[in-house]
Task: structure prediction
Amino acid sequence: MERSKEEFLRRFGEDYGYPNAPKNIDEIRASEFKRLQGLVYLDHAGATLYSEAQMEAVVKDLTSNIYGNPHSLNDSSMATSDIISAARLQVLNYFNASPKNYICIFTSGATAALKLVGEGFPWSRESCYMYTMENHNSVLGIREYALDRGATALAVDIENVKLHGLRDGTNESSVRILKHSVQRRAEAKFPQDGVRCTLSDNAYNLFAFPSECNFSGQKFCLDLVKVIKDDAQKFFEGSQVGQWMVLVDAAKGSATDPPDLARCPADFVVFSFYKIFGYPTGLGALVVRTEAARILTTTYFSGGTVSASIADIDFIKRRERIEQVLEDGTLSFLAIASIRHGFNIIDTLTTSAISRHTTSLATHVRNMMMDLKHENGVNVCRVYGRDIAKTGCFCNPGACAKYLGLSHSDLISNYEAGHVCWDDKDVLCGKPTGAVRISFGYMSTFEDAEKFLRFLEISFVEKHKSSNGKCHLCTEAVPLSGIGWQQLVGNVRLKSITIYPVKSCAGFSVSGWPLSNMGLKYDREWLLKGPSDEILTQKKVPEMCYIRTFVDLEQGKLFLESQRCKEKMQISLAKNSSCEMEEMNVYGQRYEVMTYDDEVNMWFTEAIARPCTFVRCLSSKKRSCMNMVGREGLCRDSKSKLTFVNEAQILLISEDSVHDLNSRLNSNIQKDCSCSGQTVLVDAMRFRPNIVISGAKPYVEDSWRSLQIGEAHFVSLGGCNRCQMINLDQQSGQVRKLKEPLATLASYRRVQGKILFGVLLRYEDCIMEDEEEKNGKERWLQVDQEVYPSID
Result:
């Protein structure tokens, strides 16, 4: 790393590390961010980090002073009012905005500030809301107010921005605006009162764009403010009349390049403080031109916003100062008192130095990513955006669709297939649904960048290729091309069977178990859902591993126990027709489910320490899945069903593949000097398998097309995509700090963005099984049965 850092400093030494500040970057990290030791944090676009000195100053301030409610009249309240006034000026100074021309209105964040503009803007049927495609959902949300009140809405792309003479007042410009289809609602509620403008000459229009795109990192030229305010009419060829106002979303850009409002006089600027210096959260501001503030109206009034009101008649007099009218209730005054300590950190470094520092790291990483290639010459990374490198769409659907090439039909199809924000569906129909973003903050270091690049190289660079040039799984323990039928027959046995009655809770092992048309009988037939109908799993609720389960077939009962509950729970396996039935959606699949009474739900609520509801799967409709060769196929035929499984009925794990993984795990740990003396071992149960086999070569199961266990036939649906859940210690419910075994698996088991380990199976005899169940017969799996795979 020393040589690479020397090369980096030769190119970026003047910009990197704050050479002119009281502390350089290494001193800042060592003294102010000790909690980052051994960690790499690269989500500063989501939320940057607060420093230890900043928080020490906040604590000292709050423990040394008394700040009372600013709506009261006493010494402590006056002290708070003074702090708030000083904070408003500090915000205006940060954006180089004169107090004569601008007002600072505190909100709960950038989103609340945007909502304030949308609600208070004087929309009319002659108004237009124009916004760039690259905008956050919170900016797009203003469209609802515009369309609902009869205005049009228009998404645009800005291209070929060449600006001349704006600084000397000539205002010559060349801007190409590519317009998308105009939106208008037929059922819009046209305003009838005199407050809203209805005359064309007095109509107000709003244009919104980000100072920096939170998806691609593209920085928009802020001279667009003057271009739109002065020349917007020419882009509409006279069809759009009225006055244009401009809103800049500075939530992303304000940390490194805050808009200079003296040079580019936007009417509205929104941002959040935690994006700039990490703390406080839940506080933002709307910086608004005084003239623009006068057109904002509000219907609701609250404490602090009125001079007088009478309870039993229609009488109200609002306050005159716009910040007093628009800031409902008591401000978060302790948070406001804290922002000066964050600004002190930024002022010491300067935003220009922070911008140069973070840009040097982003440029270096982007260049290295573009040079990273697989052994066959294919690029490892595709970088979106023009300037710098950047999971998901980051609440920016326009930029996501633009850079990923997703059409309207693609986006709608993805949603209908069950894809929603924050899920783990990375690729659908061969196209990515989002991107992976990395972003740097003022405390990021070259070492952070290098560790990320090393992670890419270890986890994603394919150094092995097949004869046809396509990448395949790295399985050094056994080359798949050399496997023959004779090696497989008679050596493989079923070692264990595990049933998981409740999705994501503990399972139980048995020596034998019956099969049904859903796979293993009663496997994942129940689940827990949260108050908002979200499906609860150990990813979000690790405490679910404390719930132990057992199904007694003779008694016909499901037994549950938890160390957090005094009593055990017993639930009958009989499907009670008197119970309440309903339909629910689970990862895009519709189910008919049975719900339980309050006694059962309260038991589970106590077990996981959060409100939840227990439900049972009664039936499900068909859904599609991918088979081994990538073709779409049904996970079952017309008479078979799935319970609350993610992808398939049964998961198979090979004990021999686990042994190979363990040897790789410990080899990696020995290479890592920070983990010397440690041993990491995982057993097959870490992967929550239904069946474990032994006696096969490591990873030979990847090549199986089908298999027979006893008299039961199964079809392979391909590898199981692994997630962070396999890092969860089932005994303690804590995620392992080493991020294993997922990190090691990622280094050699990654295929097309998925980390595969284990094989998904479909019980092929489910139709016959359905008939046999009706006749009172069941087919069973038994431990120690022979496994006969086929690769034909």
Notes: Residues 351-371 form the longest helix (21 residues). The two ends are 48 Å apart (CA to CA).
